[in-house]
Design brief:
The protein is built from three helices and four strands, in the order H-E-E-E-H-E-H. By secondary structure, it is an alpha+beta fold.
Length: 113
């Protein structure tokens, strides 16, 4: 992912949390926040220490980033996304994680028509 596609600052995370909408399933919570003057989507990740050790948390983050890279043409570009991984995300393989992420993004209406 390019640097322009990442949400890094705490202020930006808080904006998405406070002004955005949340959608969830058993593995992921997704916050979306619409920004009109944005050419490409931005993504912020949060994986708590409750999910597992550093290796597990980094694997979950890699899976989420790769899933977004594969779906980048289908996902709406005018949104900021913050994805929070729940405990059950630690046990998933990549294909299951991608399928569950697609499920929650479909609920959030984050795909282009």
């Amino acid at each position: 992912m390019k640097k322009s596609q990442r949400i890094k600052k705490n202020k930006e995370f808080q904006t998405v949390f406070k002004k955005g909408k949340s959608f969830a399933n058993r593995q992921f919570i997704v916050y979306t926040y619409k920004k009109e003057d944005q050419e490409e989507f931005r993504i912020g990740l949060s994986v708590s220490k409750k999910v597992g050790n550093a290796v597990t948390r980094n694997r979950v983050k890699r899976y989420i980033r790769q899933a977004f890279l594969e779906m980048k043409d289908e996902v709406r570009q005018d949104l900021d996304y913050v994805i929070i991984a729940r405990n059950q995300a630690a046990t998933l393989d990549f294909h299951t994680a991608k399928k569950n992420l697609q499920h929650v993004l479909r609920i959030a209406k984050a795909f282009k028509k």
